[in-house]
Amino acid sequence: MSDDLTRRQLVRRAAVALCAPALGHGLGGCARRNSPNRDVQAPVSQNGRVVLSAQLAPELQVVGGAVVVHAACASRPVLVANTGSGFVALQAICPHASCEVAWVPEDLQAECPCHGSRFAGDGTVLNPPATTPLQTFPADRDPANGSVLVHLFAGDGTFPALVGGFVVINLANYPALKATGGVVIGQPEGMSGPLVVTRPDVTIAPVALSAVCTHQQCTVQPILTGAPPSSSLYCPCHGSAFDLNGKVTHDPATADLPAFSVVWDGADSLTINVGSICS
């Protein structure tokens, strides 16, 4: 077991213990139910799916059962639960303070044991202090053997799929990137996290960055100001900010957004080298 995984488990269990007295006295600030789900280590298949067999995750064979999956190459653990009518898979780290959320089967919701944030099965925030949703992942049962399949690297259609470690885009399909200050954020199929492509200056190549904030792994968003708009990137969870080259401009983040190498033909073709799923 890694030191990082051990630390997360200790933090989560400490939060449960600290909240117990408060729950008994009806105090706010802690979750109403604290039922940590078992941590499961799982490999990622060649097609980017995690296969959770009945032997590996027997909890998922029962309605209401849930596990937290720590998969190779995934940037964040994933909470997987059996709702009775299907399966949900959610980012397991609360965007408020990076505690690990737990599944509440009677409500079909995820809850943070540290500060009481609540999330619907589609990741929507139901109760603060969290203000940003949990990322979701497609999950279903393999009819052949009953295993639960979680697709950790599904795309959202914004960018083309990853092929051989590269994302190739046609700038003509992204009007925002034809102007200085343009920003496009999306999840390419086969990539382990969201990608942001920016245009600090139309006279030079666009910039490709990881869209995962280096503070607590929330997804950054563009902020537009002025007319015509000039852009920057900010984290909606804790207010970190970055310029269009990924440089930190406002804390609490202290590290720049990781950059990917790009090849631009000077016209509309942009090739981004993001590496393989498990690079």
**Radius of gyration in whole Å, from Cα?**
20 Å
CATH class designation of the largest domain:
Mainly Beta
Cα separation of the termini: 21 Å
Mean pLDDT: 84
Count the strands?
Answer: 21
Explained architecture:
- The chain is mainly beta.
- It folds into two domains: 149 residues, Rieske [2Fe-2S] iron-sulphur domain (Rieske Iron-sulfur Protein, 3-layer Sandwich); 108 residues, Rieske [2Fe-2S] iron-sulphur domain (Rieske Iron-sulfur Protein, 3-layer Sandwich), CATH 2.102.10.
- The strands form five sheets. It has a six-stranded antiparallel β-sheet, with no helix packed on it. A four-stranded mixed β-sheet has the order 1-3-4-5, with no helix packed on it. A four-stranded antiparallel β-sheet has the order 6-7-8-9, with no helix packed on it.
Topology:
Layout (H helix, E strand, L loop, with lengths): L2 H22 L13 E5 L6 E4 L13 E6 L6 E5 L4 E5 L10 E3 L4 E3 L6 E3 L4 E3 L11 E3 L6 E4 L14 E5 L11 E5 L8 E5 L7 E4 L10 E5 L4 E5 L6 E2 L5 E3 L8 E6 L4 E5 L6
Parallel strand pairs: 1-3
Antiparallel strand pairs: 2-11, 3-4, 4-5, 6-7, 7-8, 8-9, 10-11, 12-21, 13-14, 14-15, 15-20, 16-17, 17-18, 18-19, 20-21
Keywords:
globular, 279 residues, disordered N terminus, mainly beta, 1 helix, six-stranded antiparallel sheet, Rieske Iron-sulfur Protein
In short:
With 279 residues, the protein is mainly β.
